[in-house]
Design a protein that fits this description.
With 100 residues, the chain is an alpha+beta fold. It has four helices and three strands. The longest helix is centred in the middle third of the chain and has 18 residues. The site of zinc ion has 7 residues, from helix 2 and helix 3.
């Protein structure tokens, strides 16, 4: 069963934690495009950070991985549920590098 866009947005937003703003757009080909932006970096007037990845589940995973790395690097004391996947995200990053 495919969850609705709003439900996916809520789920991704909950996992990404309080600093994230998750938005899902629909691409021309009907795929979901995940956008995660950092409210703290945007609010401070720094360059707005965001991850933009097309693709349904792959896009979700890829943008969430980038978000996890952003949190670890810039907001190490934040406490977002997605940080539980840090080891898995690092593993995927490693695998992607191996394939190139
Ligand atoms: Zn940030």
């Amino acid at each position: 069963m495919v969850a609705s866009r709003a439900a996916r947005e809520r789920k991704a937003g909950a996992e990404a934690g309080p600093l994230a703003k998750v938005k899902i757009d629909l691409a021309d080909d009907g795929q979901f495009v995940y956008k995660i932006s950092c409210t703290e970096c945007a609010g401070r007037g720094h360059l707005k950070w965001s991850a933009y990845r097309p693709g349904n589940d792959n896009g979700f995973m890829a943008s969430m991985d980038r978000w996890i790395f952003h949190l670890v690097e810039k907001h190490p004391d934040s406490d977002a549920p997605c940080l539980a996947y840090l080891a898995a995200a690092q593993q995927r990053l490693h695998e992607r590098r191996e394939q190139q």
